[in-house]
Amino acid sequence: MAELAIELTGVNKYFGEVHANKNISFAVAKGSIHGIIGENGAGKSTLMSILYGYYQADSGSIRLNGQEVRIRNSHDAIARGIGMVHQHFMLVDTFTVLENIVLGAEQGVALKQSLQAARDHLAALNRDYGLQVDPDAIVGELGVGEQQRVEILKALYRGADVLILDEPTAVLTPQEADDLFRILRLLKAQGKTVLLITHKLREVLDITDAVTVMRAGEIVGNVVTADVGKEDLADLMVGRKVNLQLDKAPARLGKTVLQVSNLSLTDARGVKLLDDVSFELHAGEIVGIAGVSGNGQSELLEILSGMREASAGSVRYNGTELTTLQTREPKAAAYRRLGIAHVPEDRSREGLVKDFSTFENAILGYHDDPAIQRGLLFNRKAIIERCRRFISEFDVRPANAFRRSGLFSGGNQQKVILAREIDSDPQLMLIGQPTRGVDIGAIEFIHKRLMALRNAGKALLLVSVELDEILALSDRIIVMNAGRVSGELPAAQATATELGLLMGGHK
Amino acid sequence: MSQPSNLPRWATLWLMPVLNLFAALLVSGLVITLIGEDPVECLQLMINGAFGYPEGIGYTLFYTTSFIFTGLAVAAAFHAGLFNIGGEGQMYLAGLGVTLVCLGLDFLPGWVVIPLALLASMVFGAAWAFIPGYLQAKRGSHIVVTTIMFNFIASALMTWLLVDKLIMPGSQTPATRLFAESAWIPMLHELAANLGVELPQTPLNATFFLALLALVLFYLMVWRSHWGYTLRTVGLNEKAARYAGMPVSKVIIVAMCFSGALAGLAAVNELLGSTHRMNLAFTNGIGFVGIAVALMGRNHPFGILLSALLFGALTQGGLDLSFEKPAITHEMIILTQGLIILFCGALENLFQTPLALAFKQMTKR
Ligand SMILES: Nc1ncnc2c1ncn2[C@@H]1O[C@H](COP(=O)(O)OP(=O)(O)OP(=O)(O)O)[C@@H](O)[C@H]1O
Ligand SMILES: [Mg+2]
């Protein structure tokens, strides 16, 4: 058997009454890419945080290269050659790549000398792993994919032999993800060990050597990737048969709900973020907006939900012109009252208040609802009841309405937001990245709910960077590139290749 | 990023503040030892001064009343994500409102003047807080800076008014004439006397009950009402507030007015409850102590009640102590207050890591 880089035995971790890691034991072979998959809240991030010294295990032992170690904090972890690429990058935007990498690892007194030494070292790393990062670029001006590479470089610079990546592809475009995997393969070829958390089974099958499957804090399977298929993994993860194929009944189109004409948005610097965008959306239809992130989709959602003003153009919703609508309250509130619900792209920063209890987040945006007022005060019981209903209908785990939202895993936060927006019985539903960072079982569930909404005659506008998701849900697909509509086609005729070309602005 | 704590809730809420307080007292004790006094004896004198006899208790509760109002004022702004340092100035201006009503209308019966004076205190306090609130919401001027500046402006304005305009004709001290008795808020010993109970004469007055009521109303408004919900959403996550369609600027301005009105009520306790005239020094740092009270009370009415009581006791016990021990000056009391603020505010999490470790050891066994 191959040498072991990491060996965990009997690791347990509690958060209050939540048993986040139950008696975890598993091993990772040196020089391999090891995948970790599991539902939202299964305990993957917690386990990796223990390995990286961010949390302390309540019991159990960790062996690195056959030696028992105690990792008290991330300094310990780095000293022992464990590097972590966080999902939210820990970089200083105004520093150059070089400065960011040296930050906290300065050698010697003279910063200048240490910068020169670092530059040489960096050039070598860049060459060895094909990272192609310009050391003098300002980090804030880099794209997400490049920033991620800076994080990887930073870990390698500190001498990491084991690299942990927590959902690295959640924020990447398919092309960027391919680049990342090329780098990971090179790392593996050089004898590094990679731990990869992801919700995308295709990636797991593509790149890993072995997979550990977690469910509800426990390990439910350790398999060699070559021996399994997508369905096996999905079933193992969820503990039941998962239907990856969505039933799509033919759409029964109703009246036109939304008519966007010649919409443009110019920012303060004169850059056109949206350029002459026009399309229609009918009741009983899902229109998917495909595109590499940052090509105007976010701005479009912001305008349609009333959070931002367009520079020019018109938006008609059920016969009402929205751009010139006069309201006393902020537009976002007025639009919601008209029946436009919005699941924002950035759920944790916009869609909810992390420090609120879940029942408080269950009414965000609908806090005016007369059903939850009682005289001058809130009808607390009605709010909690509503939240409990969301929790049971959407299978939010743990089922605790009083728990702070920030303590829930990403997928469970998303379920609360979706439940809230669907429950408002909207005419038009704007959805940004509904399943970003959400597990397979929950994706299946969320997709079914969205499909049911469409079959009930609602109009849905879906923005997603996942082509699979767009293809599975949409009736019609609009592709955006550089703020313009670069193509529109019925989903039935669309192929991934064709969409890819349109997204790149070709054709 | 700091390590998330694994402490049980009760430990964060109760044990940590008590430990912090204890540490502050310990350091104060050290200083007292250094100047050659016996810290244990001093502590005894202080506790006795604050709670040991009916008159002391009366004074303690009188100070507590004002601190509750200024503490709530800081907390109100805090929940909207604002740090209102201007309680002192808002209280000052509120005093002007009270004074104008009383000087002009105190020929009217109490049930007319007193409500009017209460209203004036809130309106003037709110107005003084409105301007920094407006500047923050619409112009982006930082609230901390503007409220501090407004303290200075208030102080200069009041000095001018008292010395030049409102001073009692023929008097040398910058103070107004005594308000007519109809405008005085009933003292507790008077109320008790009506019921046949004899209490010692202290400035403790009916405003105390208003403060208790304010605590309850504050809780209901902030945690149980639509208005408080918007307030807290804006304070915790402005982006989410915009997403939810909340009028963020308006919420900020209204929160500041609410805060200023609460600070203003402290002026009622002092002017209508105790001195019955306005003088230059009536605010006496009460607005600033409110910051410490809110910090220590974790911006929650129940915590504010306890910490206002602590600071009330410290003020009264400290005064008694400095009578008994000439070596312990007023400055020493301020030092102790400062230490409490330091340990409970700035060094709030000093004991978190050791406590977390201790808990872990205990649960392992
Ligand atoms: N700091 C914390 N305090 C309390 N509970 C926590 C904390 N961090 C995580 N949990 C809980 O522990 C469990 C495991 O969470 P974890 O983040 O490890 O899940 P995950 O597998 O990474 O999920 P996801 O796929 O959604 O990222 C969840 O129930 C979560 O709510
Ligand atoms: Mg996770």
- CATH topology grouping of chain B: ABC transporter involved in vitamin B12 uptake, BtuC
What average pLDDT do the residues of chain B reach? 91
Describe the global form of chain B: globular
CATH class of the largest domain in chain A: Alpha Beta
Largest sheet of chain A: 6 strands, mixed
Helix content of chain B: over 70%
Write down the overall mean pLDDT of chain A: 89
User: Could you please say which CATH topology of the largest domain in chain A applies here?
Assistant: Rossmann fold
> How many separate structural domains of chain A?
3
In CATH, the architecture of the largest domain in chain A is 3-Layer(aba) Sandwich
CATH-scheme architecture of chain B: Orthogonal Bundle
Query: If helices are DSSP runs of H or I spanning 4 or more residues, what is the number of helices of chain B?
Result: 15
Backbone structural class of chain B: mainly alpha
Widest beta sheet: strand line-up of chain A = 6-7-8-3-9-10
Largest sheet report of chain B: none
Radius of gyration of chain B: 22 Å
Pair of chains with the largest interface and how many residues each contributes: A-B, 39 and 22 residues
Strand content of chain A: 25-35%
InterPro entries (chain A): AAA+_ATPase, ABC_carbohydrate_import_ATPase, ABC_transporter-like_ATP-bd, ABC_transporter-like_CS, P-loop_NTPase
Domain ABC transporter (chain A): 6-241, 258-507
GO molecular function (chain A): ATP binding
Keywords (chain A): ATP-binding, Cell membrane, Membrane, Nucleotide-binding, Repeat, Sugar transport, Transport
